Amino acid sequence: MHTPGANVAGYVSLFGVQIVLLIIYWIYVRYDDELLPQDSEESSGDATSQDEGLEEKHVPSYPHFQDIHVMIFVGFGFLMTFLRKYGYSATGFTLFLAAIVIQWAILFKGFLHMEHGIIKVSLDSLIDGDISAAVPLISMGALLGRTTPIQLLFMGLVEIAIFALNEYVQLDMLRVTDVGGSITVHAFGAYFGLAVSCILRPSKDDSAAGQHEGPSYTSDMFAMIGTLFLWLFWPSFNSALVDGADQERAIVNTYLALAAATVTTFVLSALVSHGNKLDMVHVQNSTLAGGVAVGSVCNLLIGPHGAILIGIVAGAVSVLGYRYLTPLITEKLRIHDTCGVHNLHGMPAIISAIFSAIYACLATKENYKGTLEHIFPAMMNSTLHSNSTEIVLGGYGRTSMQQGGYQLLSIVLTIVVAVIGGAVTGVVLRAPSVRKLSKDQLHDDEAYWEVPGEKEQ
Amino acid sequence: MHTPGANVAGYVSLFGVQIVLLIIYWIYVRYDDELLPQDSEESSGDATSQDEGLEEKHVPSYPHFQDIHVMIFVGFGFLMTFLRKYGYSATGFTLFLAAIVIQWAILFKGFLHMEHGIIKVSLDSLIDGDISAAVPLISMGALLGRTTPIQLLFMGLVEIAIFALNEYVQLDMLRVTDVGGSITVHAFGAYFGLAVSCILRPSKDDSAAGQHEGPSYTSDMFAMIGTLFLWLFWPSFNSALVDGADQERAIVNTYLALAAATVTTFVLSALVSHGNKLDMVHVQNSTLAGGVAVGSVCNLLIGPHGAILIGIVAGAVSVLGYRYLTPLITEKLRIHDTCGVHNLHGMPAIISAIFSAIYACLATKENYKGTLEHIFPAMMNSTLHSNSTEIVLGGYGRTSMQQGGYQLLSIVLTIVVAVIGGAVTGVVLRAPSVRKLSKDQLHDDEAYWEVPGEKEQ
Amino acid sequence: MHTPGANVAGYVSLFGVQIVLLIIYWIYVRYDDELLPQDSEESSGDATSQDEGLEEKHVPSYPHFQDIHVMIFVGFGFLMTFLRKYGYSATGFTLFLAAIVIQWAILFKGFLHMEHGIIKVSLDSLIDGDISAAVPLISMGALLGRTTPIQLLFMGLVEIAIFALNEYVQLDMLRVTDVGGSITVHAFGAYFGLAVSCILRPSKDDSAAGQHEGPSYTSDMFAMIGTLFLWLFWPSFNSALVDGADQERAIVNTYLALAAATVTTFVLSALVSHGNKLDMVHVQNSTLAGGVAVGSVCNLLIGPHGAILIGIVAGAVSVLGYRYLTPLITEKLRIHDTCGVHNLHGMPAIISAIFSAIYACLATKENYKGTLEHIFPAMMNSTLHSNSTEIVLGGYGRTSMQQGGYQLLSIVLTIVVAVIGGAVTGVVLRAPSVRKLSKDQLHDDEAYWEVPGEKEQ
Prior knowledge:
By secondary structure, the first copy, chain A, is mainly α. Chain A is built from 16 helices and four strands. Helices cover 64% and strands 2% of the residues of chain A. In chain A, strand 3 and strand 4 (391-392) form a beta hairpin. In chain A, helix 4 packs parallel to helix 6 (149-173), helix 6 packs antiparallel against helix 7 (182-199) and helix 12 (303-333) crosses helix 13. Chains A and B meet through helix 3, helix 8, helix 9, helix 12 and helix 15 of A and helix 1, strand 1, helix 2, helix 3 and helix 4 of B. Chains A, B, C: It comes from Hermetia illucens. Chains A, B, C: InterPro entries: Ammonium/urea_transptr, NH4_transpt_AmtB-like_dom, RhesusRHD.
């Protein structure tokens, strides 16, 4: 069944994708103006004051970008190393998938915002590319160890396109607020992956769990590297797309929500686990649920206590989900969710959307002052408004209650799109012509990697 | 002796602490003004020049904060993974303890600086919270593997309160200089932990070392992750609370002191160790002693050579401490110090205080110019002085020599407070009603964690 | 053969080096003016506006510095942990070597740019020191596991001096463009190391491979930590020494080149490897080749597609080099290259130089506008030109084609200097009086470290 030939064909097509990307970039993609040499004298280094010069010359969002960059590649990559024989694949396929997906996401999102037939790239494009890469990596978590790399990369390419379209609908057309991407990134990635997993589920007689599923002591330690870098840089993820006071609020709220979710995770893990012992799965994942659950509201006026409250709720829901809901879903629906993305991304994202609806209903011109129309642009009056850097389309004149309704609509719509998109993708991945893993290859690096003979010596 | 019931009670009380924190935040804590929407037009994004706008809108100390954030959770967490069966606890309890302690520290330090009955939080509060978390984590290093998580968290909550009060006395009342926290953070944390360890010491006939104490090859590698991130970001820790030229001086001095301490550590480790082989304990810990020893003086005019000299002294004292002093303390005083915090934090902090006294004595208006009264506010004349951003209380008109004396007083006082505070805390932790680890549970994750059956496969 | 005495002598001399460094710093090194207290009122904190004040007070290149700092110590350190019994040495000797070399590089490069007999240090010196440290670390990769630490440190000290002189010739005299250091850092480090390795090669009958050479599953996972942090922060390395639009271009180009090299690496690794399985050596190393190959041109107008093209070429050349060229070099020339630095640094650096020649030929005043003379100062007219911050020497009036020729001359000259320098260094390291590793000590931590008896338990 597993002839080398088919394998080669898959890899060759991926290389074809890379070459096609190169050609499209050659035709359509150019540096943004801020990356081009300017005629003015500033660019040749004659700043009048050295200090000012230095300030101006550094790209201010670069540290934020680098934090997110670490989250995507080290955070996601190592978080998924918890399986004892799947560490090469966890870190390697994360790198492979993200490397191709970021190029594709910059392009596809660029097509949605083209100017004069040209896609312009800058540091902001890289931030966009990295955030987009999170989406298929979340889905990969649901499927971890049960797909070939070719299946994974095909899924990633399709998923990015559907994600970008859905994001465009939610943010540019429905104008919901979601600066941390809980709705558009986390809910989408989780339910897309679960839908794929549902379609790929084994026949009734067969268990989805391979013999190699499960952690070792060392693999659990590697996973903590992923957990910690995700936990630490989550405030950067949630605050990357906002500025000034909004940004600092997003940072403070995310920090507090994560701290509260972490305390709640440890306490509940001990209370609900077998023999009251702590469970590393909870520690590795549920501690992060606070970051997801605060995502859509992190720049709103939720107050420090609001952030802590959301963190407590998210940590509790996540641990209880791992303990009680996931076994049910696996048994009854036979949907396998290797990393438990439903508990880390899915449910916390729904929580975030609900809170975003509540806080949208509470938003007034009095408390948000001049920033209201910036945060909730659909609540502006429907006049055309322009400023020096961009033309802002007129709002829809929504009331607070209406905006709240749209926030709920947004999560429902996103889940529907994700489930349908994932299901269709799953059907393609199950096609007879697509190579699949045999049962003994599940959760095992040896299926696709050269592995040293005498391990651990 | 270890009934699940008692365990549950402990965790439930911790959850109670989290709920109490939520309530107190709800009542007393609000966003700082810089996090609130402004009425001015700037905040709605209409900056006249895009470039300027971007500059203004990014929180300038955020990269510094993130470096410290990595130090606390990845640095401390992984540094303590060197024990071969205690990696889950090292990373997990660091995360748990720090997550609860940062919320509590922001609150407690906030009460000491309340305005109109309200505690205001901003990014600076998070930096404060993270630096405070270092204190109980240092103490945890002394006790590593010999307490239950409930004992640890109780200690952390008490310790933060005493630490914050002592810091208030040293910095706000005695007005000593200590920008890197060597006196208030490192010395305090180390001697508090050692005092707790002294009270918790086993009876004379019993050895404190569990059968599981000691590293494995893999656990030593994980510990190097912690060492390296602490080593790399230490300049950020020491320079986070100063600005401009002071900050750059703190960065350069800390970098040089760490480099010199590292070279000294390797050389001395080979010279004093058995068979002239290098000892990973020294490499993991003594290389960092330079960062502690330069902490109180890193923003002073110590010169690049001064930084290197301090690094050499600190590395040497630390390695010799591990090799000769720690065995003595363990045998004679029966004070167990699992990570050797006395050699990494205790003695280097005393060195730092001594150097701070020396350099304070050398401080003059001539070399420090206008920054003298900023660095040594007690050396100002006792007039009330105000500037645009804050009201600075008048100085005490101290001479350089007097300031030097106060620097020495500060370290003595801090150690006295830490030892008394730690001893009292230790007595509480030893109370008959408090659950303790049995001898075979020492340094073993299995006491509190679900551990995979077949390790390392 | 291995008497403790000789060992001790080596370590004592290294301590002597540290003491000599201390003395030279004491005599010649001072803080740069921007680190000194100013008489103006700004420095005492009375900025008129708090926001502006904060902006001004933070050192803008500090985040860039910290990224590079992580690359040197965590990136290089962990990348070299792939050998199963050499992890202590990989991380430890990286730390040791870099700690002494950064002090020495700051000094030596300072001597080349002295003012009034004084070397001034600032954050820029630390960036310089860290980048310089990469050079001997690259060479260490070629020799990994086959030298004593004393041999390694001696090599590092000599290599830094030759590197700094060569860099001075290339950048200050020949005025080639090489902002990412592909020519001066990567090519130099690789060919210097290979030359040393050639001289140290074993006699014909003997194989250079020790019995311990080769990875374990766990050691390969540790190496991925190094790979990922190098991969993530490479845009910072390449963009650290340029500003503004140049900097953002360097960031975007490096990001895209790395992504394309990564996809190419995975595809080719599967296609050329035994049984079409992925090879961790390729994933750990060739994914990074894109960063090297784009180094010399990353700030030029190569276009996003140019960056992707260079990445594809570099990834392909690197994988093919590991698969086909390295075995040839090892067998025929008996030059051992433990980490394959020829494939990661050597050949990609040559590719970078060739591309830099091509793009230099295409450079015109029309496309580079006012920045042409900044990027290619030798293409300016030969008049003396001064601006407010520095005096720029007149250019040589080169044409584009001439500049392209100089770029090629630069890589040839650099390789010649590196090979001669490495060969001479190798002869010294082979001297009868120098202690060497015996065959059974190759690639084994136990030769120089205390290693826990029962590993991996």
